[in-house]
Structure formats: structure tokens, C-alpha cells
Amino acid sequence: MFLTFAGLSNAVAQQQSSGTAPVGSAPGVSKDGVAPGATAGADPATGGGDAAAIAAGDALFKNNCAQCHAVNDVVVGPALKDITKRRPISWLIPWIKNSSKVVASGDEYAVKLFNQYQKQQMPSFQLSDAEITSIISYISAESGKGSTADQGGVTAGNVNATDGKDAAADDTAGAGQYVNVLLIVLVVVLIVLVVTLVIIANIMKDVLRGRKDLDGRDVELMEQRFDYSKIYKSNIVRGLAVTVFTLAILYESVQAAMGVGLTQGYQPTQPIAFSHKLHAGTNQINCSYCHTSVYKSKSANIPSANICMNCHSQIKTESPEIRKIYRAIEKKQPIQWVRIHNLPDLAYFNHSQHTQVGGIECQTCHGPIQNMEVVYQYSALTMGWCINCHRETPLNTKGNGYYNNLVKLHDKANSAAPFTVSSNGGTECSKCHY
């Protein structure tokens, strides 16, 4: 009975998982998020935009604008929702390229905006008109989404985008709870049955002991006891116990020796409570905004206090943690951040070679940094870990003439295997030790 109910529970769980709609999908909406019949080439000024332009604008916005702006919230600068309804694109393009020049020209709206935000100067951006237009397309698309409460649902029949999903989730939870209750009741019944059988057996023994018509064999069977001492006194059992104990000690000793010098999971307390989850996750600030050398230097630098002040000269200026930054600037002393990721001096590592040339994402080595309140060392950073990555990671050789002959030689020798970092000498000793 127990196995039957367990199988039933498993079947229900599989049925629920296979019958649940994909997260983020809604009836009548395609994978691209475009409703059937909707046009993809709408004017950005009207809240539409080409899908490719919106995607490009999303990336440009996060890399250049998200540090100071959000679509629906005021950050350092104003919220950008429906910006095309307040200003035409012909005004926005020169403003983004050089806001100081527009303010200096005496433009009434620009001067009012400049004074409204404490004369905080927006930096100039070397972006093309097409890039700025794509950013505006992204902002217009985000503005058109609005909030869930404002949208009122997908259709006019009082069915919003989450009703179907929530109903399915409620049904799933109800069925799961029903099966769990049945399993719990079954376990309780089995325990009661076992206890009852033990009680009945003891009662029967007491009844039999009171009978005088039992022969010697019956009495022997009734009074027999299992001799547990034979088990632990057995040479075989003792030998197995000693072997298992010895193997466990050897295993733990080897693991301890292999872990010497490893700091995976290291999470020190920093002098200032800085949350990557808030900055990189919630506010989507690009890593290179603070770690300015992450794509162009051998090492990823620790940001200076001045970079913090780009935002915190206006945001949470009275916070006790932010006041620590002010004190460091006033004393002209660097903040004593505690280094987390360390490699031995005998190993050469170039950060830009991996991020810029190799196109490696930050999360590949540093883990889900955008979800960390306090940063910790996510990866092992051992030699074996690096070599495995070099063996498994294919190189992007397209459009790079340097690799042409190397790829030909590789394909000639082993065309079935991809051209990886290892194929380019990435596992040679001298690559990292010289």
C-alpha cells in the first residue's frame, strides 16, 4: 500500500510538471512576447519599436544609463517612462550626446531639468543616432508595459496575465497536499499496526507461559532469544568494521590534504556593507561601471570611493554605511576592502584575456554575483578547475585571421572535436607558469 501511494504521488507530480505552462508565457502571446497580429516595426515615439532595436537598446541602457536612471523610478536622474511624450527624439538625441551644450544654449526645458536635479551634470555619451534611437525604443517599450494593476489583464474578460498560472498553481498545490496527507495517514496506520502486532505477540507469549500442557520443544521455541553477541564477536564483522573505519580515515585525510590552500566559500566581512544583489541585481548596474578595468586590464580593480559618489552624492546620503565612504574621502584614505579571490603568485592570470577576448561572463567564475548580499568565492579556482574549463570551452575563431591556419590543422587532425582553448595550447604548462 505504501509503495502504491508513493507511486501515485510521483505520477501526480510528473503530471503537474508536464501540464504547467512555461513561466512568463500568456495565452495569445508568442515566444517573442508579441501578440498575434501585432506589428514589430512601430515608431519608438508611440511606444513600439523593432524587436532587434529594443534588444540592442536594452543592452545599451544597462551599460550606459541604468546607473542613474530607471524607467518607472527616480534614481539619480528622473524616471524615463513616456519620455517620448515629453520630448521629441530630435531633442533627446543631442541631449544624450551632450547635455551641457543643450543647457548652455538656454533651452528652457533643459535648464529647468538641470536645476530640478541639483545641477547634477549628466555625462556626455559617444553614441550614434541609431544607438540612441534603440535606447529610446527600449524605454518606450518598457513604458508601454506599465504595471500589472494598470494593465488590467490580457483580455477584457477580467482575466489577467497571471490568473491562469495562479489557478494552475493552486490546483497543483491542492493535489500535492492531498497526496501528502494520504501518505502521512498511511504511515501512521502502519506504525499503529506494527505496535499492535508487538503487543499481541507479547500477550500470546504470556498466555502460553501459563499453560501446563506444553512439551519441552514448545517451551524452547517460546523462550528462545537471538544471541546478538555472535554478531559483534564474529571475525568477519570485526574485519569489515576495521576496514570501513580505516577507509573513512584515509578518505578524510586525502580530502583534507587536497583542500590545503583552497578558499572556496570564503566570505569575509567587509568594512562597508555593500550589496551586489541591490546594485548588480535589482538596479542592474553593469560590472564595468564600478570595476572599470574588468575588460582592459590584467586585474579587475576595486572601485574607488569617487565612483561610489557618482550616485551616493544624491542617494541615501544619511545612511551610516554611506557616511563611511564620506569619511574615507575626507581623510583621503582608501577603503580597506578585504580581498576574496586570490591566486598563487606562481600562476599567471589575465582578466581581460578572459572577459574581452574570450567573452567569458562574470557569472562563469564568480557565480550568481547579482544575487549575493555578501560576496563569497563561488568557484574552486584550482588548477584542475581551470584546465577542465580550457578543455571544454570552444574558441570563437570566426573573423579572426590569426586562427585560420590553426583551425585548418586542427580540423585535419581531428575534425570531430571542437577547437577549444586546449587545442590552442591552453593546457600547456608554460601558458600559466612562466
From TrEMBL:
Region (Disordered) residue ranges read 18-47
Query: So where does this one cross the membrane?
Result: 181-204
Q: Where is the composition biased (Low complexity)?
A: 32-47
> Under which name does UniProt file this protein?
Cytochrome c
CDD domains reported for this sequence: Cytochrom_C3
Q: Which InterPro entries match?
A: Cyt_c-like_dom, Cyt_c-like_dom_sf, Cyt_c7-like, Multihaem_cyt_sf
Residues in domain Cytochrome c? Answer: 52-143
Pfam families in the cross-refs: Cytochrom_C (PF00034), Cytochrome_C7 (PF14522)
Recite the UniProt keywords alphabetically: Heme, Iron, Membrane, Metal-binding, Transmembrane, Transmembrane helix
Q: Does the keyword Iron apply?
A: yes
List the PROSITE patterns hit by this protein, alphabetically.
CYTC (PS51007)
Q: Name the domain of life.
A: Bacteria
Which gene is this protein's source? actA
Q: What Gene3D superfamilies does this protein's entry cite? A: Cytochrome c-like domain (1.10.760.10), Cytochrome C3 (3.90.10.10)
